[in-house]
Amino acid sequence: DLGGLRREWFHLVSREIGEKLFTTVGDDRYQPYPSLSDSNLSDFKFVGQLVAKAIVDDERLDLRFTRTFYKHILGQEVTYKDMDEEFVKNITWLLENNVDESIGLTFSVDIEHCTSGGKTELITCDLVAGGRDISVTDANKHDYVMLLGEYLMTKSIKPQLNAFLDGFYELIPIGLLSNLNADDLELLICGSSKIDVQDIKNVAKCKHHHHILKWFWTTIKGFNEKNKEMLLKFITGS
């Protein structure tokens, strides 16, 4: 089948994993669910092995991770600027404007955690001891931003991240990734997120220039990237 079944297996398994073990952030990027239990760490190790195996086999997965997650895999430093666009926008406003207790922020964060039963629960987590009772002010806002970013990007998912990395590095040692950046790694795992309709049109062979073909090309030019990707998979089986 020219590898079609294997490609389909990687695609379906990765999509199922994304729905069960990860939450979506920003523009539908995957980030591990913080967990109140260590019961699913073996699952994250398997995901790490799966992602590495897909890279080795030159297969693509339906798992677009957050930029911070890619940088963790590469062993690179992460900052709040690596977070999703809306988060960065809010933090930038906070840093560039005078703030006081009236904005209602404290050194804590409400975040969804996955329970042992697989359900999600909203938990208030202190960024420092007693953080929910400490207001964010102009004097301490830089500390708040640093602690919030560190918690959301690393501390809240540390066990899941470590399990994933253990599995990933079993197949691909981190030293082999030293020349890559986050964009390179995403391209290896997921392929390009941009599909040029003109490229498809250039390689398409049509015996008759029927008006329906014009409708077809006009229609797919209006597709979003997800629908273009689905169309390409339907056409090529990959």
TrEMBL record:
Reaction catalysed by this enzyme: S-ubiquitinyl-[E2 ubiquitin-conjugating enzyme]-L-cysteine + [acceptor protein]-L-lysine = [E2 ubiquitin-conjugating enzyme]-L-cysteine + N(6)-ubiquitinyl-[acceptor protein]-L-lysine
Biological pathway: Protein modification; protein ubiquitination
Domain HECT: start-end pairs: 1-238
EC number: 2.3.2.26
Enzyme's top EC category: transferase
Entry keyword Transferase: yes
Lineage: superkingdom: Eukaryota
UniProt GO molecular function: ubiquitin protein ligase activity
Gene Ontology BP terms: ubiquitin-dependent protein catabolic process
Gene Ontology CC: one annotated term: cytoplasm
The UniProt record lists the keyword Transmembrane helix: no
This protein's UniProt keywords: Transferase, Ubl conjugation pathway
Record Pfam families: HECT (PF00632)
Name of the protein this chain belongs to: HECT-type E3 ubiquitin transferase
Protein species of origin: Selaginella moellendorffii
Lineage, opening ranks: Eukaryota, Viridiplantae, Streptophyta, Embryophyta, Tracheophyta
